[in-house]
Amino acid sequence: MIAGLILCASLTAVDGDTVKCDGQNMRLLGEGVPFASGIDTPEIGSNAKCLKERKLALIAKGRLKELLAEKGLRVVFSGAVDKTQSHRPLVNIYRANGEEIGKRLLQEGLARMWSPKRRIDWCD
């Protein structure tokens, strides 16, 4: 697949680090490198391991929803898809001011840095 700009008529938050672009789920990289680094947010609903994680997930999703409502967003496909069954495209979303949305979530404490060797526990 070729990296490049993606046009979305509809862009919505699925959870804190997944968006839906015209019906297709896409995973936020947060300026990371596919399969080496990125961002992670708490799991939502029944995927959460505890009540704290579930609450944090709703906050992260709410903030992502706010950010996605801004005008002038650019969705940039990295050229890679994740290793889940749905093969979500790995993307960065940039605000009109050039800031990457995943980076904003990190700065606000709603996401953490992800790496393949590190397991994130939102319950402690």
Automatic annotation (TrEMBL):
InterPro entries associated with the record: SNase_OB-fold_sf, Staphylococal_nuclease_OB-fold
Pfam family name, one: SNase
TNase-like domain residues: 37-114
Domain of life: Bacteria
Protein name listed in UniProt: Nuclease homologue
Organism of this sequence: Rhizobium aethiopicum
